[in-house]
Amino acid sequence: MTESVLDVRGVSIWKGLLDKPSQDAMVADLREVATAAPFRRYETPGGRRMSVRMTAAGDLGWVTDRSGYRYDPMQPDGDRWPGIPTSILDVWNTVSGTSRPPDSCLVNFYGEGAKMGMHQDRDETDTSWPVVSISLGDSALFRVGGTSRGGATESVWLDSGDVAVLAGAARLAFHGIDRIRFGSSSLLPEGGRINVTLRVAG
Ligand code: MD6
Ligand code: FE
C-alpha cells in the first residue's frame, strides 16, 4: 500500500498506514474491546445525546453525563476498561514520536448520519503529549482549524487505514467530523466508521 504523510494545518496525516489485513486484525481486537466495554451513546452536560457511540480501553476512558466530561478509570456500570490491544499500541509506537505509552484509547463509532462538532481535546492532565487517531471503515470529512474557535479551517477526507497525529502547535487545534460517506468502505459489514484515539490522559 502506498503511504504518504500530509500536513493539514499542522496535523500530520499518514495516508494508508494500515493495510487491509492490519485493519481487519484491529477490527477483530476492537470487537473484543466492545464485548468487555459496550458502545454507549452519552449525554453531554448540556443534556444532548451524542450521535457518535463511544467506548474505551486502557487505564482511563472518557465519559460524559449531566455532571460533565471527564476521564474515568471506571465504565458507567462500575467495571474497569479492557486493556489496549497490541495492534493499536503498535500504531502509537510507529507515529507518536514518544516512548511513553498511552493510558487511554477512546473508540468512537459513527453510524449513518453521525458527526462530531468542532472541539479541542483538552481534558488530558498534560496536553503536551500527542494524540494519535486511527480511522477504520467509511471515509469521513475531517475539518481542522486553529487553536481558537472560528477562523479559517481546512478539510480532508480520512479513509480507512489513515492515521492522524495532533502534536506540537496543532495539539490544541479545533477539529471535528462534518459527515461520513456511509457505505464507502466494506471493512465493517454493516457500514459505518470507527475512530480510535490514543492519548496520555492522566
Ligand atoms: C474522529 N477525531 O476522527 C474524531 N481528536 O472521529 C477526534 O476528535 C480527534 O482525530 C483528537 C485527535 C485526533 C482526532
Ligand atoms: Fe478530538
Sum up the structure in keywords.
202 residues; mainly beta; Jelly Rolls; 7-stranded antiparallel sheet; 4-stranded antiparallel sheet; binds N-[(3-hydroxypyridin-2-yl)carbonyl]glycine; binds fe (iii) ion
How is the CATH topology named? Answer: Jelly Rolls
What share of residues is helical? 10-25%
Q: How many strands, what sense, and barrel or not for the largest sheet?
A: 7 strands, antiparallel
Question: What is the straight-line distance between the termini?
Answer: 35 Å
Shape type = globular
Q: What is the annotated CATH architecture? A: Sandwich
From the alpha carbons, calculate the radius of gyration and give it in angstroms: 16 Å
> Low-confidence runs (pLDDT<50, min 5 residues)?
none
Bound molecules: N-[(3-hydroxypyridin-2-yl)carbonyl]glycine, fe (iii) ion
What is the ordering of alpha helices and beta strands? EEHEEEHEEEEEEEE
CATH class: Mainly Beta
Strand proportion, as a percent range, falls in: 35-45%
* Mean pLDDT metric: 96
**Count of helix runs:** 2
Question: Number of DSSP strands?
Answer: 13
How many distinct folded domains?
1
The CATH superfamily is identified as Alpha-ketoglutarate-dependent dioxygenase AlkB-like
For the largest sheet, list the strands in their spatial order: 1-2-11-8-13-6-3
